[in-house]
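for the recovery benchmark. tokens below, seq after
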């Protein structure tokens, strides 16, 4: 939030009406302006700005904002012990702080004197910082929020050091071409770092993002860590890490390394990483490691455990797909390798890793259940069958229709609880049952739904956002999907030809099987009986749209070709799922719309919530 004031130094004196006649002096926040092109001697106002950021930092007080105009600033910033914000007015593409390899780009180490509100860096790029510790950013003993910033070509043993109880939050930040001899971004000494939607590209260090030490905590959400030299993420020495919705790929080192740590990996993809010894995707020694709803794909290790290697810890793998991994030593597990420890694999797919896909030595306790294991593996409800991936050769590990992994998982795994989402963020439990592997199958996932077609009918349910429909017998894939809270309204929106009949149908319908006879005006949706209602979904209706045979109802578009319907859902229990399609009749023909799968959910139950697209 930007603040303004009439003068640079603003003091407001209030006289309180008290018996003692007390006087209170209140310092108001000030906004300072900096412009690298300004002449020396400025006073920091909008019209007479400072010419350096550090000049503003030297006089800034608690709650002040420093607005930095576009340009390149050759500075090494040292932040004072107050809460303030440094904001690049033109964004990171226009505003650069170049430390010139003459010291740290940003030092934020002075203890906070008067406020616990974090300082903030926003819309800035920082380049060429150098120091044995924290060349790009040195943060210790205080809090900092970093938003929309870029860090490039910073060097040191740990170019970004967060330590001694500091709390750091990074949002929408990029780290590129930084180099460390130990860790690149290091969280230690009981510090806490949260990174949301951050990208790490082409950096080099033993570990690119690291947390170590008791009470040190690292949380990564929706981050990409790719094409780096070193392990993508390294967690050690009793630190805790939670990794959600992240992609860790193409790193020259294990995707994730965990040494005596507590690590949870959820709804993430770990692929194409190349370890220098073992555990191409994940290497864990001691500690506790949990992987849920994640993909471990096409990783390699010269020794063993191309996908994952677990040693002497507690590990749980739940709803994961481990595929296409490779390692050099054939006696070990090329997909999953276990030495000692207590381990469980549930609701998972292990395919295409070579033989053996899973290996456990005599010291390991390993239970495998409800899983599709190539070559088979002893355990309850395990099987060996082609999971029918959509296109594994090209990296698409969604489940195809008819996969034996659909709806055959365990809803109550004994190791780790089910994740709420699959690997790409879709709800983990689709139809009251759970699938095996990282993907939760939704009809239409494989083909992406029916694509836009010009001059045909539109059909939307509760904001599903579906594009134009498809003509009859188009054989285009579908349908789309929307969740609706029980006891709420269902809303239909149609758009086609003006003043034309519309028929909305539901059941287990298949656009590829639909046929229309223009001579008789008959429309046949085809397909077997709906599994929920038992009614036939192969129906015939007349072109005038007045025959309302079950299942269906009719309406007529207005003069603009639109019609909307809304009504309260019947008291359906959660878990009901069916398909809706509409047929819009026009002179001499009929357009069938896209199909929309509708699932009824209980918003109070786990995994429930508002309708999603």
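predicted aa per position
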């Amino acid at each position: 939030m930007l603040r303004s004031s009439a003068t640079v130094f603003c003091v407001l004196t209030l006289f309180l009406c008290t018996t003692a006649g007390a006087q209170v002096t209140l310092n108001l926040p000030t906004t300072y302006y900096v412009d690298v092109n300004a002449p020396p001697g400025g006073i920091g106002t909008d019209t007479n700005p400072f010419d350096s950021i550090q000049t503003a930092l030297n006089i800034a007080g608690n709650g002040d904002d420093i607005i930095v105009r576009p340009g390149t600033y050759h500075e090494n910033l040292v932040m004072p012990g107050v809460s303030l914000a440094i904001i690049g007015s033109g964004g990171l593409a226009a505003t650069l702080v170049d430390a010139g390899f003459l010291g740290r780009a940003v030092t934020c180490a002075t203890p906070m004197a008067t406020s616990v509100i974090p300082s903030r860096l926003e819309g800035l790029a920082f380049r060429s910082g150098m120091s044995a510790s924290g060349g790009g950013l040195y943060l210790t003993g205080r809090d900092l929020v970093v938003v929309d910033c870029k860090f490039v070509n910073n060097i040191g043993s740990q170019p970004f050091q967060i330590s001694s109880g500091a709390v750091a939050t990074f949002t929408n930040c990029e780290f590129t071409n930084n180099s460390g001899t130990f860790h690149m971004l290091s969280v230690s000494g009981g510090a806490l770092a949260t990174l949301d939607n951050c990208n790490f590209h082409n950096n080099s260090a033993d570990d690119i993002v690291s947390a170590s030490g008791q009470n040190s905590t690292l949380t990564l959400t929706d981050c990409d860590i790719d094409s780096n030299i070193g392990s993508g993420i390294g967690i050690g020495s009793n630190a805790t890490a939670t990794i959600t919705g992240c992609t860790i790929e193409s790193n020259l080192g294990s995707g994730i390394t965990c040494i005596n740590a507590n690590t949870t990996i959820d709804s993430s993809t770990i692929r194409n990483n190349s370890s220098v010894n073992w555990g191409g995707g994940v290497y864990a020694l001691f500690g506790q490691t949990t992987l849920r709803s994640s993909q471990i794909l096409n990783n390699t290790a010269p020794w063993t455990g191309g996908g994952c290697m677990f040693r002497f810890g507690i590990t749980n793998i739940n709803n994961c797909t481990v595929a296409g991994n490779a390692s050099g030593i054939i006696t070990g597990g090329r997909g999953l390798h276990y030495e000692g420890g207590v381990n469980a694999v549930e609701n998972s797919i292990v395919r295409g890793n070579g033989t053996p896909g899973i290996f456990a030595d005599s010291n390991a306790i390993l239970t495998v259940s409800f899983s599709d294991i190539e070559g088979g593996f002893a355990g309850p409800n395990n099987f060996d069958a082609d999971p029918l991936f959509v296109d594994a050769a090209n990296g698409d590990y969604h489940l195809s229709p008819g996969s034996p992994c659909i709806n055959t998982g365990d809803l109550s795994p004994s190791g780790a609880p089910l994740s709420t989402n699959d690997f790409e963020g879709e709800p983990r439990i689709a139809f009251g049952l759970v699938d095996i592997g990282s993907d939760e199958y939704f009809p239409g996932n494989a083909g992406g739904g029916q694509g836009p077609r010009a001059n045909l009918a539109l059909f939307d349910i509760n904001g599903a956002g579906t594009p134009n429909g498809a003509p009859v017998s188009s054989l285009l894939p579908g349908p789309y999907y929307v969740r609706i809270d029980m006891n709420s309204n269902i809303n239909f929106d149609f758009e086609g030809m003006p003043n034309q009949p519309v028929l909305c149908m539901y059941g287990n319908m298949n656009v590829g099987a639909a046929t229309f006879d223009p001579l008789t005006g008959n429309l046949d949706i085809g397909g077997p009986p709906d599994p929920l209602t038992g009614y036939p979904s192969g129906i015939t209706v007349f072109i005038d749209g007045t025959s309302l045979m079950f299942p269906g109802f009719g309406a007529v578009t207005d003069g603009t070709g639109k019609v909307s319907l809304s009504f309260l859902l019947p008291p359906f229990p959660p878990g009901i799922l069916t398909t809706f399609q509409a047929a819009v009749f026009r002179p001499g023909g009929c357009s069938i719309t896209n199909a929309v799968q509708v699932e009824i959910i209980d918003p109070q139950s786990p995994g429930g919530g508002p309708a999603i697209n």
